[in-house]
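Example complex used in Figure S2.
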Amino acid sequence: MARTIGEVILKVDGISLAFGGVKALTDVSFDVREHEVRAIIGPNGAGKSSMLNCINGVYSPQQGRITFKGQTFEQMSPHRAAEMGIARTFQSLALFKGMSVLDNIMTGRNLRMRTNLLLQALRLGPAEREEMEHRAFVEKIIDFLEIQAYRKTPVGRLPYGLQKRVDLGRALAMEPAMLLLDEPMAGMNVEEKQDMCRFILDLNDEFGTTIVLIEHDMGVVMDISDRVVVLDYGKKIGDGTPAEVRSNQAVIDAYLGVAH
Amino acid sequence: MSRNLKRNWPVYALGALLAIGLVLPLATGASALGFYIEVMLGGLMSGVLYSLVALGFVLIFKASGVFNFAQGAMVLFAALALARLSEVMPLYVAFGLAILIMIVFAWLVERLVLRHLVNQEGVVLLMATLGVTYFLDGFGQTVWGSDIYKIDLGLPKEPMIVGEQLFQGGILISKEDLFAAAIAALLVMCLAVFFQKTPTGRALRAVADDHQAAQSIGIPLNRIWVIVWAVAGFVALVAGMIWGAKLGVQFSLQLIALKALPVVILGGLTSVPGAIIGGLVIGVGEKFAEVFLGQYLARTFDLAGGGIEYWFAYVLCLFFLLVRPEGLFGEKHIDRV
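Predicted assembly (597 residues):
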Protein backbone atom coordinates (compact mmCIF):
# COMPACT_ATOMS: atom_id res chain seq x y z
CA MET A 1 0.00 0.00 0.00
CA ALA A 2 1.46 3.30 -1.00
CA ARG A 3 1.11 5.85 1.72
CA THR A 4 0.01 9.33 0.85
CA ILE A 5 1.14 12.30 2.85
CA GLY A 6 -1.95 13.99 4.22
CA GLU A 7 -2.95 17.20 5.93
CA VAL A 8 -0.98 18.93 8.69
CA ILE A 9 -1.57 16.96 11.90
CA LEU A 10 0.79 18.86 14.22
CA LYS A 11 1.72 22.49 14.07
CA VAL A 12 4.30 23.95 16.40
CA ASP A 13 4.14 27.71 16.44
CA GLY A 14 6.74 30.08 17.90
CA ILE A 15 7.83 27.85 20.75
CA SER A 16 10.27 29.38 23.24
CA LEU A 17 11.49 27.50 26.27
CA ALA A 18 14.02 28.64 28.86
CA PHE A 19 15.38 27.01 32.00
CA GLY A 20 16.24 30.02 34.14
CA GLY A 21 18.73 31.93 32.00
CA VAL A 22 19.40 29.09 29.58
CA LYS A 23 17.38 29.35 26.42
CA ALA A 24 16.69 25.85 25.18
CA LEU A 25 14.38 26.87 22.35
CA THR A 26 13.83 30.25 20.71
CA ASP A 27 10.82 30.87 18.52
CA VAL A 28 10.73 27.49 16.79
CA SER A 29 7.95 26.76 14.31
CA PHE A 30 7.37 23.80 12.03
CA ASP A 31 4.63 21.41 11.06
CA VAL A 32 4.20 17.69 10.66
CA ARG A 33 1.89 16.17 8.06
CA GLU A 34 -0.12 13.03 8.47
CA HIS A 35 1.66 9.80 7.52
CA GLU A 36 5.06 11.43 7.03
CA VAL A 37 8.39 10.68 8.66
CA ARG A 38 9.68 13.95 10.03
CA ALA A 39 13.16 14.19 11.48
CA ILE A 40 14.54 16.76 13.91
CA ILE A 41 18.31 16.97 13.74
CA GLY A 42 20.97 19.23 15.14
CA PRO A 43 24.26 19.17 17.04
CA ASN A 44 24.35 18.19 20.71
CA GLY A 45 22.47 20.61 22.91
CA ALA A 46 20.52 22.06 19.99
CA GLY A 47 17.22 21.58 21.80
CA LYS A 48 15.92 18.53 19.96
CA SER A 49 14.83 16.59 23.02
CA SER A 50 13.42 19.77 24.58
CA MET A 51 11.27 20.19 21.49
CA LEU A 52 9.97 16.66 21.80
CA ASN A 53 9.30 17.18 25.49
CA CYS A 54 7.23 20.29 24.68
CA ILE A 55 5.11 18.41 22.15
CA ASN A 56 4.58 15.60 24.62
CA GLY A 57 3.81 17.97 27.51
CA VAL A 58 6.73 17.10 29.78
CA TYR A 59 8.00 20.69 29.48
CA SER A 60 5.78 23.74 29.33
CA PRO A 61 7.11 26.30 26.89
CA GLN A 62 6.96 29.96 28.01
CA GLN A 63 5.75 31.07 24.62
CA GLY A 64 4.11 29.59 21.59
CA ARG A 65 1.31 27.25 20.71
CA ILE A 66 0.98 23.64 19.75
CA THR A 67 -1.86 22.58 17.48
CA PHE A 68 -2.58 18.87 17.29
CA LYS A 69 -5.49 17.47 15.27
CA GLY A 70 -7.02 20.93 15.05
CA GLN A 71 -6.90 21.63 18.79
CA THR A 72 -4.60 24.38 19.98
CA PHE A 73 -2.79 24.31 23.31
CA GLU A 74 -0.59 26.82 25.11
CA GLN A 75 0.88 23.82 26.83
CA MET A 76 0.29 20.12 26.65
CA SER A 77 0.16 17.74 29.59
CA PRO A 78 1.64 14.25 29.22
CA HIS A 79 -1.70 12.72 30.06
CA ARG A 80 -3.64 14.73 27.49
CA ALA A 81 -0.97 14.08 24.88
CA ALA A 82 -1.34 10.36 25.50
CA GLU A 83 -5.12 10.61 25.33
CA MET A 84 -4.96 12.45 22.01
CA GLY A 85 -2.79 9.75 20.52
CA ILE A 86 0.78 10.99 20.92
CA ALA A 87 3.11 8.19 21.98
CA ARG A 88 6.83 8.45 22.57
CA THR A 89 9.99 6.51 23.21
CA PHE A 90 12.88 7.69 25.32
CA GLN A 91 16.48 8.57 24.61
CA SER A 92 17.75 6.97 27.76
CA LEU A 93 15.56 3.94 28.20
CA ALA A 94 12.62 4.45 30.51
CA LEU A 95 11.21 0.96 30.62
CA PHE A 96 9.61 -0.74 33.58
CA LYS A 97 12.68 -2.83 34.27
CA GLY A 98 11.25 -5.24 36.78
CA MET A 99 8.32 -6.18 34.58
CA SER A 100 8.22 -8.70 31.73
CA VAL A 101 8.28 -7.66 28.08
CA LEU A 102 4.62 -8.60 27.82
CA ASP A 103 3.61 -6.54 30.86
CA ASN A 104 5.63 -3.57 29.65
CA ILE A 105 3.82 -3.53 26.34
CA MET A 106 0.46 -4.22 28.01
CA THR A 107 0.83 -1.02 30.03
CA GLY A 108 0.59 0.80 26.71
CA ARG A 109 -3.02 -0.39 26.52
CA ASN A 110 -3.83 1.27 29.83
CA LEU A 111 -5.77 4.17 28.36
CA ARG A 112 -7.94 1.78 26.40
CA MET A 113 -8.96 -0.25 29.42
CA ARG A 114 -12.60 0.44 30.16
CA THR A 115 -13.55 -1.91 32.97
CA ASN A 116 -13.29 -0.61 36.50
CA LEU A 117 -11.13 -1.62 39.41
CA LEU A 118 -13.76 -3.79 41.06
CA LEU A 119 -14.41 -5.90 37.97
CA GLN A 120 -10.68 -6.28 37.45
CA ALA A 121 -10.08 -7.32 41.01
CA LEU A 122 -12.76 -9.98 40.88
CA ARG A 123 -11.72 -11.02 37.37
CA LEU A 124 -15.31 -10.90 36.23
CA GLY A 125 -16.46 -11.54 32.67
CA PRO A 126 -16.08 -8.15 31.00
CA ALA A 127 -12.68 -7.50 32.56
CA GLU A 128 -11.43 -10.92 31.54
CA ARG A 129 -12.70 -10.48 27.99
CA GLU A 130 -11.15 -7.05 27.72
CA GLU A 131 -7.81 -8.34 28.95
CA MET A 132 -7.89 -11.05 26.26
CA GLU A 133 -8.59 -8.54 23.50
CA HIS A 134 -5.72 -6.33 24.57
CA ARG A 135 -3.47 -9.32 24.90
CA ALA A 136 -4.29 -10.33 21.32
CA PHE A 137 -3.36 -6.87 20.09
CA VAL A 138 -0.12 -6.88 22.05
CA GLU A 139 0.77 -10.25 20.56
CA LYS A 140 0.57 -8.67 17.11
CA ILE A 141 3.05 -6.02 18.19
CA ILE A 142 5.35 -8.67 19.64
CA ASP A 143 5.25 -10.51 16.32
CA PHE A 144 5.88 -7.32 14.39
CA LEU A 145 8.94 -6.47 16.49
CA GLU A 146 10.16 -10.07 16.41
CA ILE A 147 10.54 -10.41 20.15
CA GLN A 148 8.37 -13.52 20.60
CA ALA A 149 11.15 -15.36 22.39
CA TYR A 150 11.38 -12.75 25.17
CA ARG A 151 7.70 -12.37 26.12
CA LYS A 152 8.17 -13.37 29.74
CA THR A 153 11.70 -12.08 30.25
CA PRO A 154 12.11 -9.17 32.66
CA VAL A 155 13.08 -6.23 30.51
CA GLY A 156 16.08 -5.32 32.63
CA ARG A 157 17.80 -8.53 31.52
CA LEU A 158 17.52 -7.90 27.78
CA PRO A 159 20.36 -6.46 25.71
CA TYR A 160 20.13 -2.79 24.87
CA GLY A 161 18.93 -3.20 21.28
CA LEU A 162 16.02 -5.36 22.36
CA GLN A 163 15.11 -2.97 25.16
CA LYS A 164 14.81 -0.26 22.54
CA ARG A 165 12.38 -2.48 20.67
CA VAL A 166 10.29 -3.01 23.78
CA ASP A 167 10.22 0.75 24.31
CA LEU A 168 8.90 1.08 20.75
CA GLY A 169 6.42 -1.74 21.34
CA ARG A 170 5.00 -0.05 24.42
CA ALA A 171 4.44 3.14 22.43
CA LEU A 172 2.84 1.17 19.59
CA ALA A 173 0.43 -0.51 21.98
CA MET A 174 -1.24 2.88 22.36
CA GLU A 175 -2.17 2.75 18.65
CA PRO A 176 -0.83 6.27 18.40
CA ALA A 177 -1.75 8.77 15.72
CA MET A 178 1.72 10.21 16.06
CA LEU A 179 4.87 8.58 17.37
CA LEU A 180 7.74 10.59 18.83
CA LEU A 181 11.05 8.73 18.73
CA ASP A 182 13.88 10.21 20.76
CA GLU A 183 17.10 8.88 19.23
CA PRO A 184 15.75 5.41 18.49
CA MET A 185 19.14 4.28 17.20
CA ALA A 186 21.49 5.84 19.72
CA GLY A 187 24.14 3.42 20.92
CA MET A 188 23.17 0.64 18.51
CA ASN A 189 25.41 -1.37 16.25
CA VAL A 190 24.89 -1.47 12.50
CA GLU A 191 22.64 -4.52 12.48
CA GLU A 192 20.46 -3.20 15.28
CA LYS A 193 20.19 0.10 13.45
CA GLN A 194 19.09 -1.63 10.29
CA ASP A 195 16.45 -3.58 12.18
CA MET A 196 15.15 -0.43 13.82
CA CYS A 197 15.05 1.42 10.49
CA ARG A 198 13.05 -1.44 9.02
CA PHE A 199 10.56 -1.33 11.87
CA ILE A 200 10.12 2.42 11.55
CA LEU A 201 9.60 2.28 7.80
CA ASP A 202 7.25 -0.72 8.02
CA LEU A 203 5.22 1.03 10.67
CA ASN A 204 4.92 4.11 8.60
CA ASP A 205 4.12 2.11 5.48
CA GLU A 206 1.69 -0.45 6.81
CA PHE A 207 -0.12 1.45 9.53
CA GLY A 208 0.41 4.97 8.25
CA THR A 209 1.68 6.10 11.66
CA THR A 210 3.02 9.64 11.59
CA ILE A 211 6.55 9.63 12.94
CA VAL A 212 8.65 12.42 14.41
CA LEU A 213 12.16 11.31 15.19
CA ILE A 214 15.32 12.75 16.60
CA GLU A 215 18.45 11.14 15.33
CA HIS A 216 22.18 11.74 15.26
CA ASP A 217 23.06 9.32 12.49
CA MET A 218 22.85 11.52 9.41
CA GLY A 219 22.85 8.59 6.99
CA VAL A 220 19.78 7.14 8.66
CA VAL A 221 17.98 10.47 8.79
CA MET A 222 18.56 11.23 5.15
CA ASP A 223 17.45 7.73 4.12
CA ILE A 224 14.19 7.41 5.95
CA SER A 225 12.76 10.90 6.47
CA ASP A 226 10.44 12.80 4.21
CA ARG A 227 11.29 16.20 5.68
CA VAL A 228 13.87 17.41 8.13
CA VAL A 229 13.96 20.26 10.67
CA VAL A 230 17.42 21.42 11.71
CA LEU A 231 17.95 23.06 15.11
CA ASP A 232 21.08 24.78 16.37
CA TYR A 233 21.39 26.52 19.74
CA GLY A 234 17.62 26.30 20.10
CA LYS A 235 16.86 28.05 16.82
CA LYS A 236 15.55 26.60 13.62
CA ILE A 237 18.18 26.98 10.91
CA GLY A 238 16.79 24.70 8.23
CA ASP A 239 13.63 22.91 7.16
CA GLY A 240 12.89 20.87 4.05
CA THR A 241 13.53 17.62 2.22
CA PRO A 242 16.77 15.80 3.01
CA ALA A 243 18.28 17.06 -0.24
CA GLU A 244 17.37 20.67 0.50
CA VAL A 245 18.71 20.49 4.02
CA ARG A 246 21.94 18.90 2.87
CA SER A 247 22.69 21.82 0.56
CA ASN A 248 21.64 24.48 3.09
CA GLN A 249 24.68 26.62 3.95
CA ALA A 250 23.55 27.37 7.52
CA VAL A 251 23.18 23.66 8.21
CA ILE A 252 26.60 22.86 6.79
CA ASP A 253 28.11 25.62 8.96
CA ALA A 254 26.40 24.32 12.08
CA TYR A 255 27.68 20.82 11.54
CA LEU A 256 31.15 21.57 10.22
CA GLY A 257 31.86 24.85 11.91
CA VAL A 258 32.50 28.27 10.34
CA ALA A 259 35.83 29.98 9.80
CA HIS A 260 35.85 33.33 11.59
CA MET B 1 28.79 -19.61 41.42
CA SER B 2 31.88 -18.77 43.42
CA ARG B 3 31.44 -15.12 42.57
CA ASN B 4 27.92 -15.31 43.85
CA LEU B 5 29.19 -16.86 47.03
CA LYS B 6 31.76 -14.10 47.41
CA ARG B 7 29.19 -11.37 46.99
CA ASN B 8 26.62 -12.96 49.22
CA TRP B 9 28.76 -14.31 52.04
CA PRO B 10 27.59 -11.77 54.63
CA VAL B 11 24.04 -12.83 53.95
CA TYR B 12 24.88 -16.51 54.24
CA ALA B 13 26.87 -15.86 57.39
CA LEU B 14 23.96 -13.98 58.90
CA GLY B 15 21.55 -16.70 57.85
CA ALA B 16 23.76 -19.33 59.43
CA LEU B 17 24.03 -17.31 62.64
CA LEU B 18 20.27 -16.91 62.86
CA ALA B 19 19.76 -20.59 62.11
CA ILE B 20 22.20 -21.55 64.86
CA GLY B 21 20.37 -19.24 67.22
CA LEU B 22 17.17 -20.95 66.20
CA VAL B 23 18.44 -24.48 66.80
CA LEU B 24 20.67 -23.96 69.79
CA PRO B 25 18.03 -23.64 72.52
CA LEU B 26 16.59 -26.99 71.49
CA ALA B 27 19.89 -28.70 70.88
CA THR B 28 21.36 -27.73 74.22
CA GLY B 29 18.19 -28.69 76.01
CA ALA B 30 17.75 -25.16 77.33
CA SER B 31 14.11 -25.30 76.41
CA ALA B 32 11.36 -27.87 76.27
CA LEU B 33 9.88 -28.41 72.83
CA GLY B 34 6.47 -27.12 73.80
CA PHE B 35 7.81 -23.87 75.20
CA TYR B 36 10.12 -23.50 72.22
CA ILE B 37 7.19 -23.70 69.81
CA GLU B 38 5.20 -21.24 71.89
CA VAL B 39 7.99 -18.71 71.74
CA MET B 40 8.24 -19.18 68.01
CA LEU B 41 4.49 -18.74 67.53
CA GLY B 42 4.58 -15.60 69.64
CA GLY B 43 7.40 -14.29 67.45
CA LEU B 44 5.56 -15.14 64.25
CA MET B 45 2.48 -13.38 65.57
CA SER B 46 4.20 -10.08 66.21
CA GLY B 47 6.11 -10.68 62.99
CA VAL B 48 2.83 -10.75 61.07
CA LEU B 49 1.94 -7.35 62.47
CA TYR B 50 5.36 -5.89 61.64
CA SER B 51 4.89 -7.29 58.15
CA LEU B 52 1.54 -5.59 57.74
CA VAL B 53 2.93 -2.21 58.73
CA ALA B 54 6.02 -2.74 56.59
CA LEU B 55 3.75 -3.66 53.70
CA GLY B 56 2.17 -0.23 53.90
CA PHE B 57 5.62 1.37 53.70
CA VAL B 58 6.64 -0.74 50.74
CA LEU B 59 3.43 -0.12 48.77
CA ILE B 60 3.80 3.62 48.98
CA PHE B 61 7.54 3.64 48.44
CA LYS B 62 7.22 1.47 45.36
CA ALA B 63 4.54 3.52 43.72
CA SER B 64 5.65 7.02 44.57
CA GLY B 65 9.20 6.88 45.89
CA VAL B 66 7.92 8.45 49.10
CA PHE B 67 9.24 7.05 52.34
CA ASN B 68 5.98 7.37 54.21
CA PHE B 69 6.81 8.04 57.81
CA ALA B 70 3.10 8.43 58.52
CA GLN B 71 2.32 4.72 58.12
CA GLY B 72 2.34 4.22 61.89
CA ALA B 73 0.11 7.21 62.44
CA MET B 74 -2.22 5.83 59.80
CA VAL B 75 -2.41 2.55 61.71
CA LEU B 76 -3.33 4.42 64.88
CA PHE B 77 -5.81 6.70 63.17
CA ALA B 78 -7.55 3.85 61.35
CA ALA B 79 -7.73 1.76 64.51
CA LEU B 80 -9.11 4.72 66.48
CA ALA B 81 -11.75 5.31 63.85
CA LEU B 82 -12.73 1.65 63.86
CA ALA B 83 -12.80 1.42 67.66
CA ARG B 84 -14.90 4.53 68.19
CA LEU B 85 -17.28 3.85 65.32
CA SER B 86 -17.85 0.28 66.44
CA GLU B 87 -19.11 1.64 69.75
CA VAL B 88 -22.19 3.02 68.03
CA MET B 89 -22.72 0.62 65.14
CA PRO B 90 -22.11 -3.00 64.20
CA LEU B 91 -18.48 -3.89 63.57
CA TYR B 92 -18.79 -4.55 59.84
CA VAL B 93 -20.49 -1.20 59.21
CA ALA B 94 -17.78 0.51 61.23
CA PHE B 95 -15.16 -1.35 59.21
CA GLY B 96 -16.72 -0.17 55.96
CA LEU B 97 -16.86 3.40 57.23
CA ALA B 98 -13.25 3.22 58.38
CA ILE B 99 -12.23 2.09 54.89
CA LEU B 100 -14.09 5.07 53.50
CA ILE B 101 -12.28 7.38 55.91
CA MET B 102 -8.90 6.03 54.83
CA ILE B 103 -9.82 6.54 51.16
CA VAL B 104 -10.78 10.14 51.85
CA PHE B 105 -7.51 10.54 53.75
CA ALA B 106 -5.56 9.18 50.77
CA TRP B 107 -7.34 11.57 48.45
CA LEU B 108 -6.59 14.52 50.73
CA VAL B 109 -2.91 13.61 51.03
CA GLU B 110 -2.60 13.50 47.25
CA ARG B 111 -4.60 16.67 46.78
CA LEU B 112 -3.01 18.79 49.48
CA VAL B 113 0.51 17.43 49.77
CA LEU B 114 1.88 15.09 47.11
CA ARG B 115 0.51 16.89 44.09
CA HIS B 116 2.48 20.01 44.96
CA LEU B 117 5.70 18.16 45.67
CA VAL B 118 6.08 16.16 42.45
CA ASN B 119 9.73 15.76 41.48
CA GLN B 120 11.00 17.17 44.77
CA GLU B 121 13.89 15.61 46.64
CA GLY B 122 13.27 12.53 48.76
CA VAL B 123 14.10 14.51 51.91
CA VAL B 124 11.39 17.06 51.17
CA LEU B 125 8.83 14.32 50.77
CA LEU B 126 10.01 12.58 53.94
CA MET B 127 9.59 15.84 55.87
CA ALA B 128 6.13 16.23 54.40
CA THR B 129 5.12 12.78 55.63
CA LEU B 130 6.62 13.62 59.01
CA GLY B 131 4.25 16.58 59.08
CA VAL B 132 1.37 14.34 58.09
CA THR B 133 2.35 11.97 60.93
CA TYR B 134 2.07 14.59 63.65
CA PHE B 135 -1.02 16.12 62.17
CA LEU B 136 -2.70 12.74 62.06
CA ASP B 137 -1.68 11.98 65.66
CA GLY B 138 -3.15 15.20 66.95
CA PHE B 139 -6.16 15.17 64.69
CA GLY B 140 -6.94 11.62 65.75
CA GLN B 141 -7.02 12.75 69.36
CA THR B 142 -9.16 15.74 68.49
CA VAL B 143 -11.74 13.64 66.70
CA TRP B 144 -11.68 10.32 68.51
CA GLY B 145 -10.22 11.08 71.93
CA SER B 146 -7.05 9.94 73.63
CA ASP B 147 -8.11 7.13 75.95
CA ILE B 148 -7.47 3.47 75.41
CA TYR B 149 -10.27 1.98 73.35
CA LYS B 150 -10.96 -1.61 72.61
CA ILE B 151 -11.98 -3.33 69.42
CA ASP B 152 -14.07 -6.41 69.99
CA LEU B 153 -13.91 -8.76 67.05
CA GLY B 154 -16.17 -11.19 68.89
CA LEU B 155 -13.52 -13.86 68.93
CA PRO B 156 -13.04 -16.33 71.74
CA LYS B 157 -10.42 -15.00 74.13
CA GLU B 158 -9.55 -18.25 75.85
CA PRO B 159 -6.54 -20.02 74.41
CA MET B 160 -6.61 -23.57 73.21
CA ILE B 161 -4.14 -26.20 74.10
CA VAL B 162 -2.99 -28.47 71.32
CA GLY B 163 -0.64 -31.41 71.16
CA GLU B 164 -1.05 -32.50 74.75
CA GLN B 165 -0.31 -36.04 73.68
CA LEU B 166 2.94 -34.99 72.02
CA PHE B 167 4.55 -32.76 74.65
CA GLN B 168 4.19 -32.37 78.27
CA GLY B 169 1.68 -29.60 78.86
CA GLY B 170 0.91 -29.13 75.17
CA ILE B 171 1.13 -25.81 73.34
CA LEU B 172 -0.86 -22.77 74.27
CA ILE B 173 -2.35 -21.06 71.21
CA SER B 174 -4.61 -18.04 71.24
CA LYS B 175 -7.47 -18.44 68.77
CA GLU B 176 -7.40 -14.71 68.24
CA ASP B 177 -3.81 -14.94 67.05
CA LEU B 178 -4.63 -17.70 64.62
CA PHE B 179 -7.49 -15.65 63.24
CA ALA B 180 -5.23 -12.62 62.91
CA ALA B 181 -2.60 -14.60 61.06
CA ALA B 182 -5.25 -15.95 58.69
CA ILE B 183 -6.53 -12.45 57.96
CA ALA B 184 -3.02 -11.19 57.32
CA ALA B 185 -2.27 -14.08 54.97
CA LEU B 186 -5.51 -13.50 53.09
CA LEU B 187 -4.76 -9.80 52.77
CA VAL B 188 -1.28 -10.44 51.41
CA MET B 189 -2.67 -12.91 48.89
CA CYS B 190 -5.30 -10.43 47.71
CA LEU B 191 -2.65 -7.75 47.31
CA ALA B 192 -0.41 -10.10 45.36
CA VAL B 193 -3.24 -10.95 42.96
CA PHE B 194 -4.20 -7.30 42.66
CA PHE B 195 -0.64 -6.24 41.84
CA GLN B 196 0.30 -9.09 39.54
CA LYS B 197 -2.93 -9.91 37.74
CA THR B 198 -5.02 -6.79 37.24
CA PRO B 199 -4.44 -3.99 34.73
CA THR B 200 -4.56 -1.44 37.56
CA GLY B 201 -1.94 -3.42 39.42
CA ARG B 202 0.18 -3.40 36.31
CA ALA B 203 -0.21 0.37 36.06
CA LEU B 204 0.85 0.65 39.71
CA ARG B 205 3.97 -1.38 39.07
CA ALA B 206 4.66 0.74 36.01
CA VAL B 207 4.49 3.96 38.02
CA ALA B 208 6.76 2.39 40.61
CA ASP B 209 9.38 1.67 37.97
CA ASP B 210 9.42 4.92 36.03
CA HIS B 211 7.24 8.00 36.53
CA GLN B 212 8.05 9.65 33.23
CA ALA B 213 7.47 6.60 31.09
CA ALA B 214 4.24 5.88 32.93
CA GLN B 215 3.03 9.41 32.22
CA SER B 216 3.96 9.14 28.57
CA ILE B 217 1.62 6.21 28.04
CA GLY B 218 -1.19 8.04 29.76
CA ILE B 219 -1.18 6.48 33.21
CA PRO B 220 -2.58 9.19 35.48
CA LEU B 221 -0.03 9.58 38.30
CA ASN B 222 -2.43 11.40 40.59
CA ARG B 223 -5.05 8.70 40.48
CA ILE B 224 -2.47 5.98 40.98
CA TRP B 225 -1.20 7.79 44.07
CA VAL B 226 -4.67 8.02 45.54
CA ILE B 227 -5.19 4.31 44.91
CA VAL B 228 -1.89 3.32 46.46
CA TRP B 229 -2.35 5.51 49.55
CA ALA B 230 -5.85 4.14 49.92
CA VAL B 231 -4.53 0.59 49.73
CA ALA B 232 -1.84 1.47 52.28
CA GLY B 233 -4.61 2.98 54.42
CA PHE B 234 -6.57 -0.26 54.16
CA VAL B 235 -3.52 -2.29 55.16
CA ALA B 236 -3.05 0.11 58.09
CA LEU B 237 -6.65 -0.43 59.09
CA VAL B 238 -6.25 -4.21 59.13
CA ALA B 239 -2.99 -3.96 61.10
CA GLY B 240 -4.60 -1.54 63.54
CA MET B 241 -7.63 -3.76 63.92
CA ILE B 242 -5.60 -6.86 64.75
CA TRP B 243 -3.21 -5.07 67.06
CA GLY B 244 -5.98 -3.06 68.68
CA ALA B 245 -8.06 -6.19 69.33
CA LYS B 246 -5.07 -7.71 71.10
CA LEU B 247 -3.76 -4.82 73.15
CA GLY B 248 -6.34 -2.07 72.89
CA VAL B 249 -6.14 1.00 70.68
CA GLN B 250 -3.73 3.47 72.22
CA PHE B 251 -1.05 5.92 71.30
CA SER B 252 1.73 3.34 71.58
CA LEU B 253 0.24 1.67 68.52
CA GLN B 254 1.95 4.15 66.29
CA LEU B 255 5.33 3.18 67.71
CA ILE B 256 5.16 -0.14 65.88
CA ALA B 257 5.89 1.93 62.80
CA LEU B 258 9.38 2.38 64.20
CA LYS B 259 9.70 -1.39 64.35
CA ALA B 260 8.61 -1.60 60.74
CA LEU B 261 11.58 0.50 59.62
CA PRO B 262 14.19 -2.20 60.28
CA VAL B 263 11.80 -4.67 58.68
CA VAL B 264 11.74 -2.79 55.38
CA ILE B 265 15.51 -2.31 55.45
CA LEU B 266 15.91 -6.04 55.99
CA GLY B 267 13.41 -7.08 53.34
CA GLY B 268 14.22 -4.40 50.81
CA LEU B 269 12.33 -1.16 50.38
CA THR B 270 10.70 -2.18 47.13
CA SER B 271 9.80 -5.79 47.80
CA VAL B 272 6.39 -6.99 48.96
CA PRO B 273 7.61 -10.52 49.77
CA GLY B 274 10.57 -8.85 51.48
CA ALA B 275 8.24 -6.99 53.83
CA ILE B 276 6.51 -10.23 54.77
CA ILE B 277 9.63 -12.29 55.29
CA GLY B 278 11.49 -9.40 56.94
CA GLY B 279 8.63 -9.00 59.42
CA LEU B 280 8.58 -12.67 60.29
CA VAL B 281 12.38 -12.88 60.64
CA ILE B 282 12.48 -9.90 62.96
CA GLY B 283 9.41 -11.01 64.90
CA VAL B 284 10.80 -14.48 65.58
CA GLY B 285 14.39 -13.25 65.93
CA GLU B 286 13.67 -10.73 68.64
CA LYS B 287 11.48 -13.09 70.64
CA PHE B 288 14.16 -15.77 70.53
CA ALA B 289 16.87 -13.29 71.42
CA GLU B 290 14.82 -11.97 74.30
CA VAL B 291 13.87 -15.32 75.75
CA PHE B 292 16.82 -17.58 75.05
CA LEU B 293 19.80 -15.24 74.57
CA GLY B 294 18.56 -13.19 77.51
CA GLN B 295 18.36 -16.31 79.66
CA TYR B 296 21.83 -17.34 78.60
CA LEU B 297 23.35 -13.94 79.32
CA ALA B 298 21.64 -13.81 82.70
CA ARG B 299 22.96 -17.23 83.64
CA THR B 300 26.49 -16.92 82.31
CA PHE B 301 27.46 -13.33 82.94
CA ASP B 302 25.09 -12.55 85.75
CA LEU B 303 23.45 -9.76 83.75
CA ALA B 304 19.84 -8.75 84.01
CA GLY B 305 19.37 -10.18 80.52
CA GLY B 306 16.23 -8.36 79.47
CA GLY B 307 15.56 -5.63 76.92
CA ILE B 308 17.04 -7.42 73.93
CA GLU B 309 13.70 -7.14 72.16
CA TYR B 310 14.19 -3.39 71.96
CA TRP B 311 17.44 -3.34 70.05
CA PHE B 312 17.58 -6.65 68.24
CA ALA B 313 15.74 -5.42 65.13
CA TYR B 314 17.90 -2.31 64.86
CA VAL B 315 21.21 -4.14 65.20
CA LEU B 316 20.11 -6.56 62.51
CA CYS B 317 19.06 -3.65 60.34
CA LEU B 318 22.35 -1.84 60.91
CA PHE B 319 24.23 -4.97 59.94
CA PHE B 320 22.24 -5.17 56.73
CA LEU B 321 22.86 -1.54 55.91
CA LEU B 322 26.57 -2.28 56.16
CA VAL B 323 26.76 -5.42 54.08
CA ARG B 324 23.72 -5.36 51.83
CA PRO B 325 22.01 -1.98 51.75
CA GLU B 326 19.40 -3.06 49.23
CA GLY B 327 18.04 -5.63 51.72
CA LEU B 328 17.20 -9.26 51.08
CA PHE B 329 14.94 -8.74 48.07
CA GLY B 330 15.39 -5.10 47.10
CA GLU B 331 16.62 -3.96 43.72
CA LYS B 332 20.34 -3.59 43.57
CA HIS B 333 21.39 -0.29 42.14
CA ILE B 334 24.25 -0.35 39.73
CA ASP B 335 25.40 3.05 38.63
CA ARG B 336 26.58 3.14 35.07
CA VAL B 337 29.63 5.28 34.69
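The CA atoms of residues 246 and 252 of chain A lie 7 Å apart. The mean pLDDT of chain A is 87.
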